[in-house]
Here is the input.
Amino acid sequence: MTDRPPGLGGLAVDFRYCDADGLRDSVRGARALLLWDFFSTAVRDVWADAGALEWIHVTAAGVDTLLFDELRDSAVVVTNARGVFDRPIAEYVLGAVIAHAKDSMRSFDLQRARQWQHRETQSILGAKALVVGTGGIGRTIARLLRAAGLEVRGAGRTVRSGDPDFGEVVASSNLRDEIGWADHVILAAPLTDATRHLVNNPVLAAMRPGTHLINVARGPIVDETALLASVCAGHIAATMDVFDREPLPPDHPLWTAPNVTVTAHMSGDVIGWRDTLAAQFADNAQRWLAGEPLLNIVDKKLGYIPTGDR
Here is the structure.
């Protein structure tokens, strides 16, 4: 592999570097696995050869591409990159909210056409944002949007009031009845059986006309067929950083759909992010070598790190 984690030379560990094709040979006898390519599904294919594994670290917040039944039922500990992407993703979301309110896409089109067209745009002050997913990323999004003057609610598993970041948290299982409140809907939840196609045709239809949907979570949380119908009908707008299939195929209709902004799964990737990921793993590896408790342990049954207030 050419894209190797930086700064790991000081660890007292015998590293074997490989790509997906070489994983079967490299994983034999290995006690720990750093999954640097966090979209890889190769672990499932070589599981029979991974009998010595004790720990897998995934350099992503979401672990949906890694988990499978045999791993869930095993004693292997899974950790993730919780905390690394929180602030960058929150900044992306704030930027998307502002770009939508200021009609930036239209401004870019007018500039390319060398057309001077004075317009009035919206203020984000007092706009309503519903953040679906109340983990670390969702909380950081909520804090930044509140600081910018938006009114924020969360949607999660546990309904509550008086949350320090979300104020009110409504039930994500009841999203259809709650979503009409929002001007901006931000998806920041992990991909699980409960969240797959959480945003479907009934939920999209329940959005107020002009609602702005932002997905920085996982593509399959949104029913893309229903989304296309909604944006093409002019019902909602969308900023999409994640998709069912990535890279998004060049002929996919979302590229040219009206009121849709497409980015290449990059909302959390600021300059230096690889160094931060490697440093986080190195810290956990030192803990592992010293027999100390690991940080960011994922509940493999749930598919994320439980916080007690989701």
Q: What stands out?
A: The two ends are 37 Å apart (CA to CA). Residues 209 and 235 are 5 Å apart (CA to CA). The longest helix spans residues 273-289. DSSP finds ten helices and eleven strands in the chain.
